[in-house]
User: What shape does this take?
Amino acid sequence: MSVSHAKITVAGKTIELPVRKGTIGPDIIEIAPLYRETGTFTYDPGFTSTASCESRITYIDGDEGMLLYRGYPIDELAEQGDFLETCYLLLFGELPDLIRKEKFDYIVQHHNMVHEQFARFFQGFRRDSHPMAVMVACLGAMSAFYHDSIEILDPQQHNIASIRLIAKVPTLAAMAYKYSIGQPFIYPSNGLNYSENFLRMCFAVPCEEYKVNPILSRAMDRIFILHADHEQNASTSTVRLAGSSGANPFACIAAGVACLWGPAHGGANEACLKMLEEICSVERIPEFIARAKDKNDPFRLMGFGHRVYKNYDPRARIMQKTCHEVLNELGIKDDPLLDIAVELEKIALHDEYFIEKKLYPNVDFYSGITLKALGFPTAMFTVLFALARSVGWVAQWKEMIEDPAQKIGRPRQLYTGKTKRSYVPIHERASI
Ligand code: ACO
Assistant: This one.
């Protein structure tokens, strides 16, 4: 809905641009007519003031520390819901009733096997490959397995692709883990729920019975809910941009996994745990705080700060609680890394530098300790994030591809290179 106009004057010409209102959140100035009317572009590196799309899926209020999936607060979903109903909500816009929920669970469950050829696909990787590298490849490979069934303009095909993705990603993630430790792959088990099944595929071995601990599988499920979507972050925007050309959705998700891997994004949970291990003792915290504040030192406190949250990340609160629950259940009374994390958080939250820059713990600050306690090696942390975020990526891809106004994403640039010049034959060039 257009409510008012913003005026902009460029080189003496004034034009009016429509200002649109969302249901909540800042108003948006529509700048699409700008180039046509004035011949100028806007410039916003890192997209700090740019809305790339219209969306109804997820809302973040960074100042309030609020995160809503389709209007529902993240803490209510994490406390009372389960991951698969969160998936349904993100994909279809409403929480399912009992019949729809049972049907959705059944369908996801019955798509969880991957083609047996995948087992051979894995043999091509070195055993010490990073599991995120393996995941990028596996998601890309999914597009080879499902290339002819994806009719990009058919909404029914979008739903099939979404179910396949949500169902098969845990199987591939568990296979990536098993391959890295040289253990046999464990097939999915349909008598278990989503998170129980995933833990079993990761930690069971064929030679003995594996009983899933319900407290730990509930914690795993909650971690998946917390990571399921986060509006137009770097990896989601990557998926949308890749998908805007009409590319195969699994190939687009592979691009999202690649983007997530970086330490400024999903790789932060791995980097955070490494940082806590490097700090090693509570006494050394001030040294690392000083380094984080030193302009000449590239070191940053991992798990701190966020582009959007300028308040406590609401996911970090739930993650902290989940962390304590997991450690209690496992009888881990004194975890030196948790002691360091708690003290580090306390010191940083009272430090002028962090207060002034509004740097608070983000979801990754406590997730590493929790995942380590659950039995995952650090290299798997970002894989678990990718598993959970797959639903957000595919929900956003589906929303984009089904939008009648959708067109290929094509940003412009501020060119600062050489102006036009003539080709010089190689023997006539001055040596450089
Ligand atoms: N430690 C120390 N200083 C920091 C930190 C940090 N973790 N984060 C930001 N700052 C400082 C910057 O040095 C900068 O200072 P300046 O204004 O004096 O130059 C200021 O705070 C603003 O930082 P930017 O990098 O400009 O903020 P941006 O929004 O681009 O970055 C980011 C956000 C990448 C998350 C950043 O806070 C960071 O690197 N954090 C550590 C990595 C991390 O935890 N990433 C996970 C993000 S959550 C997720 O993806 C699930």
